[in-house]
Design brief:
homodimer; 181 residues; mainly alpha; elongated; DNA-binding
Chain lengths: 181, 181
DNA sequence: CCTTTTGTACTGACTGGTCAGTCCAAGAGA
DNA sequence: TCTCTTGGACTGACCAGTCAGTACAAAAGG
């Protein structure tokens, strides 16, 4: 849907409140009435957009969660998340900005169970296999890795857009593998 | 200044655009005109607020950057960042939300040089001392650690406000120390 | 000692513009 | 016929920023 793409771009640039429906309609090349005909309200449009994008992100992460060992799977999920934000870049910004707004609680809940859940699962598998400490706080660690990748992705897009992705991935994996050389 | 506290709370709750100057004035217990008398514009108020808060954050991190080895200093900076956001909680949300808006470029630049700089310095020291790989991409790693702590702090405040800080710190340090048990 | 002036901080009603959402008459496609 | 889309005019709420005026303390002057 063109409206989705237009909305996510504009919201990434300016934030939700500062983005007008007129602007979304104009960039999408449709009439303003069409937006309201299809989505009912600006808020509903944004809700649908968040839900759809979070679903795609969760699918991408789940698909990436493979590897000989659980820890290899973790590296692979990190790469999957980097690749996803490379492709759907503006979404990373939107997520970072609006994720913790109380207004979008259901979306955040979905993000937690579906996207962070992939990290949590991989980490649990690693704990079960003895690859990490069995008493690791898996939920917090999942959030930490997710937030780390999200922040670095956003910075990459803003400041070093043409740095090879593999290099960024290598740095992150290095951090996670433990810092002693 | 009461206006600062009110503004940061409201902006953390609703975001910059959705926060009205009327609401800020009301929560601060002053007249709307007072806000404009003191700050000139809503944007200038937010700019001053960002600058002030980033300065405090950078000071807190710099103060924490001590330890026998550079890597101990890194752990200590992580704890410093956690403590800072524990005390000035709403600011973490604001930073997370508005940090990448192009409108606040100077503030972001200041954040990068002053706050992320503390992480970068510690990591550089670690690299020089052979405590981490000499060719580590220090800038990216600094962003990664900062973003990790920022995200976890925000989640902590939102979901587990009474979990002991030391436990969160332990999990993060464990992640950084390397995941093999 | 009194009174006039000046500077500073603050006030809140008001204005001008902006924007979500509505409505409608007319077309397009199936 | 029915569903979807268009373009644009319109409304009503909301909001950043303004401005004339208040309050008051500290000089200035006599």
């Amino acid at each position: 849907m063109k409206v989705f793409a237009a909305a996510i771009e504009l919201i990434a640039e300016q934030g939700y409140s500062a983005t007008t429906v007129d602007a979304i309609a104009e960039r999408a090349g449709v009439a303003k009435g069409t937006v309201f005909y299809n989505f009912g309200s600006k808020e509903a449009l944004f809700g649908a957009l968040l839900e759809h994008s979070i679903g795609m992100l969760a699918d991408a992460l789940a698909e990436a969660a493979v590897g000989e060992t659980a820890l290899e799977a973790l590296d692979s999920v990190v790469l999957g998340q980097l690749r996803f934000f490379e492709e759907y870049g503006p979404f990373a910004r939107v997520l970072l900005s609006e994720m913790w707004r109380t207004a979008w609680q259901e979306a955040v809940a979905q993000l937690r169970t579906r996207a962070l859940g992939v990290y949590a699962d991989v980490l649990r598998r690693a704990a079960a296999a003895g690859e990490v400490r069995a008493d690791l706080d898996v939920e917090t660690a999942a959030t930490a890795v997710f937030g780390m990748v999200l922040t670095v992705s956003t910075e990459r897009r803003a400041l070093h857009p043409d740095r090879p992705l593999a290099q960024t991935h290598a740095t992150l994996v290095e951090l996670l593998h433990g810092r002693i050389r």
